[in-house]
Structure prediction request, 196 residues.
Amino acid sequence: MRVTKAQAQANREHIVETASVLFRERGFDGVGVADLMAAAGFTHGGFYKHFGSKADLMAEAAASSLAQSLTNSVGLGVPEFVNLYVSRDHRDAPGGGCTMAALSGDAARQSPELKATFANGIENTLAALESQYETGEEAPQEEVRAKMLDMLAHVVGAIMLSRACPDDSALADEILEVCRARIIAALPPSPAKQPE
Prediction:
């Protein structure tokens, strides 16, 4: 039975979405093509109708999940972002969480193309955070960018360190609590709203 172009595109998107979750849960090298296709409900042989290589899928899945993470944080102020990001819920759900926290270590050992995908995702995240950062005064753009880059590195690192500890470890929770409190304390107070 012949598959329509629309169905082929839907199948490809489903494979990318499935890969995105599995890569975040198991790492790029922790998922084989056969396992990935089985999880998506397709045969192993169908993979090469959609992708030239696993590396191609890795880059597309990373780009998709980085964009989805960004979409999920739209409209959040920086303190709200930190509270949601540096949380036990996020720590315990890598498959549905941030790609940077789940796969940055893996990406460092991958192709220049995949690294470029991550760099683009980091830039987009920084731009979104910068647009939501309230300083209460006019701050130079370089200063705002530096503050958001510092904060992003801290939130990603907090999740990575916490995940490296056993799930029931008191240290896993301590890392999250201390880092979340310190990151939020380092943010400037929100500007007071002027009476109307």
Q: What stands out?
A: The CA atoms of residues 146 and 195 lie 32 Å apart. Confidence is low (pLDDT under 50) at residues 192-196. The radius of gyration is 19 Å. DSSP finds ten helices and no strands in the chain.
